Amino acid sequence: MAQSFDSAELSDRVAFVRFRMEKAAAAAGRDPKEVLLCAACKSRTSDLVRLSALLPIDVLGENRAQEMDAHLRADAYLGKPCHFIGHLQTNKAGKVAGKAALIHGVDSLRLLTAIQSAAAAQEVTQDLLFEINIGEEPSKNGAAAEDLWPLLDAAAGMRHVRVRGLMAIPPAHIPAAESQRYFAMMRRLLAQIREHHTENTALDMLSMGMTADFENAILEGATIVRIGTGIYGPRE
Ligand SMILES: *Cc1c(COP(=O)(O)O)cnc(C)c1O
Q1: Which helix (H) or strand (E) holds 73?
Q2: Atom 6 (ligand 1): residue with closest C-alpha?
C-alpha cells in the first residue's frame, strides 16, 4: 500500500491536536497532563507509525493483532506503549495480552476470560477497559451498561487482569451537543462503578473521543483520546 506522507505535515497535525487538547483541558479546568494522546494507527505503515512515535504522542493504538506484531517487530513504537483499541477476537487474546499495555475494548465474559487465561500463562497482569455501547446501537461492539456489573464481578475473581476503567464510541455523525451527552453518561457510569468495585480494579481511565469529538470528551473527563485521521490524515 503506497502511503505518501510528509513529516512536517505530520508534525503540524500532532501539534494542532495537542493545542486543541490543551484548550479543552483548560476550558474544563483540568491539567492537560491528565489526558493521554493515543494515535490510532490502523492500516498505516510501520515507517509512518515510527515517524509519528517521534512526535509528542503518548501511546500508539492498534486495531489488529497482526498489525501490532508487525509494528513491534519493526520497532515502530520506539519504546512507547501500545494499546489495543480495536475489537479483540477471543482467539487472538494470547497474541495481545502481555504486549499491549492496555486493552480498551473488552465487552464480554468470554473475552475477559480469554485475556485472564493468556495473562496467567505469561504470569503478567493485563490492564483493560470495559467497552460500553453507550448509544445502545444494534450490532455495535460494547457491553450494555447493565452488563457492566456482572463483568466487574467476574473480573474481581481474576488475578491476572486489572480493570482500569471504561471506553466508548458514541454513535457516529451526531451533533456535538449529543456526543457530549453520551460522554457525560460515561463519566457518571465510571463514578458509579468506582463506588462499588475495588477488587482487581484501579478505575482511573476513561477512553473516549476521536478526531471529530475529542474536545467534548475532554470536557467530560476523558483521560485517553484516540485520534486517527486528525494525525495521519484520511485512510485510503
Ligand atoms: C480508528 C479508530 C479511532 C480513530 O478514529 P478517527 O476518527 O480517525 O480519529 C479511535 N478509536 C478506534 C477504536 C478506532 O478504531
Answers
A1: helix 65-73
A2: 228
| Tally of residues, the chain | 236
Q: Please say whether the beta carbons of 1 and 48 come within 8 A.
A: no
Q: Are strands 224-227 and 126-132 parallel, antiparallel or unpaired?
A: unpaired
Query: In angstroms, what is the span from residue 156 Cα to ligand 1's centroid?
Result: 29
**28 by DSSP, 3-state: which?**
coil
**The pTM is what?**
0.96
Element (H, E) at 203: strand 201-207
Report which protein residue has its CA nearest ligand 1's atom 5.
228
Please state the atom number of ligand 1 nearest to the C-alpha of residue 226. Answer: 10
Contacts of residue 4, Cβ cutoff 8 Å, sequence gap at least 6: none
How many angstroms separate the CA atoms of 25 and 160, rounded?
33
Residues 6+ apart with CB under 8 A from 203: 163, 164, 165, 190, 193, 194, 197
Distant-in-sequence, close-in-space partners of 70: CB < 8 Å, separation ≥ 6: 46
Q: From the first residue on, what is the mean pLDDT of each consecutive set of 10 residues in the chain (236 residues)? A: 72 98 98 97 96 98 98 98 97 97 98 98 98 96 96 95 97 92 98 84 94 97 98 89
Give the integer Cα–Cα distance in Å for 84 and 206: 14
Residue 20: its pLDDT value, please? 98
